[in-house]
Amino acid sequence: MELNVEPSPPTRAADRTGSTVGLFWVSGERVYLGTPPAEGVPGVLLSPVGVRITGPAPQAWRWSAVMDLQVTEVPVRTTLVRWAARGLSVAAAALDAWVPGSPAEMTAAITTTQGDRIECPVFSGAAVAYTQREVDLSLGLLARFTRGESSPATLMTWWNDAQPGEVLRSREREAVLEGWLGMA
Fold this sequence. Notes:
Blueprint: E1 19-21, E2 24-26, E3 31-33, E4 43-46, E5 50-54, E6 59-62, E7 66-72, H1 79-94, E8 105-112, E9 117-123, H2 132-147, H3 153-162, H4 170-180
Antiparallel strand pairs: 1-2, 2-3, 3-4, 4-5, 5-6, 7-8, 8-9
Helix pairs in contact: 2-4
């Protein structure tokens, strides 16, 4: 059952102040799965109230109406492969042969308590790929949101308190995710 949670916020290209932590893009005001979408492109916005697909065909559900929320097709690589890919990118840029690629497309799959499954494309916020640990911790946090055991408000509070000024390394992102899950 679809519920009108709240109106979709306008998406702006300038609305990029935030930080990638696991599968989330976090700022003091919003939490997205993947990166914030460009104008007119669908995205998945998480709020303390529920889940919202933004863009040309907006839909929204309260957390109590969401049975499951998964992200598939997540780019995962081992540390060695991620470092090798990063090294190749730096070398290509130094030779002026580097052409930035678009971020990997993932799929957010929302299953409602009514049995409906809605899929929405979201773009990866990882520069190269995520670690398997980041993905596992992120999916664990999504499960807690759907069970009502945690809230995206925790992520926004972290952003407002931490105000990270630089890109977090994978171990730092994993530590933040562990803190959100109460594992720290």
